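Here comes a specimen:
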Amino acid sequence: MTPAHGTAPRILITGAGGFIGRHVAAAARTVPGVRLTLMQHQSSLSTAHSGAAHVRADLTDPATLDGICDGIDIVLHCAARIAGPAEAVEAVNEHGTRALVEAAQRHGVRRLVQVSTASVYGRGTFRDAGPESLAVAPGSPASRSRAAAERIVLDAGGTVLRPHLVFGTGDRWVVPGLARLHGRLAASVDGWRARMSVVDVSDLARVAVAAATAPAGLPGAWHANHPVPVTCAELFDALVRTVGLPPAAEDIPAAEARRRLAEEPVLLHHLAMLSTDHWFASDRLWRESGCPEGTGLADSLARHAPWYREQLGLTRADGHPSTTSQ
């Protein structure tokens, strides 16, 4: 599954209107001579991608996929449904991926890369773990359907990338969720000692494109995070400094945190994850793809801080509003 040697790649990106897909499309535009086709379902595509071909298709309707892989060398599969009823996430993630892979195979696509998630491992403590040492054990309908999608891609000889916490412009889950937890507790929890794998969405996009275009290919499953994990304390401190979250007023034990969140199951889920290590060994992907790993957490968050401040209604570090009223 490799692009023809010496030719400009023809790349199809699914989910190109989504959080990760938009950044992958931007990264793909830097490939010399690339010819891009951007597939979307509902979200509008940025005018920054005006040089690419745009197609509308629905992963839940295989008929709409007919022909979209004609002439394509590489499929970068970024589309996924991450919430909703079990039948809905299964229809997009599992059955939709199967239909996409079948379409790619019919048209002779030579390389397939899927951006998946480390949530396919389910709950647990993970310390410097590579994908070869971890069992896939998803704990939710969305994660189960994404694990099933991975198996389809891997069985076709493709590449699966598993990031953990992805942050950056367009993120409406990770940092907003951390901000809600921080605001509700107004405290750190047991010093926030657990270590987390994180990745700037721009860096994830660059390494996804690098994996897709690597001369020898990178088949199999890979962790796709910055190779150096951060403690939760470092993560929240960076959000206080760069985004404008208020500092924690105290440090409390986990039992007290659970008491304060007793009526908020989503925040209890966040707390459980942040209370133990989720550190996925990721250095091999950057090394073998030849892609620079990017800057550390604080510098990355600083680049995305204006977007987060606007979304969260926070102020800049100097105390001024993040936006100006007209």
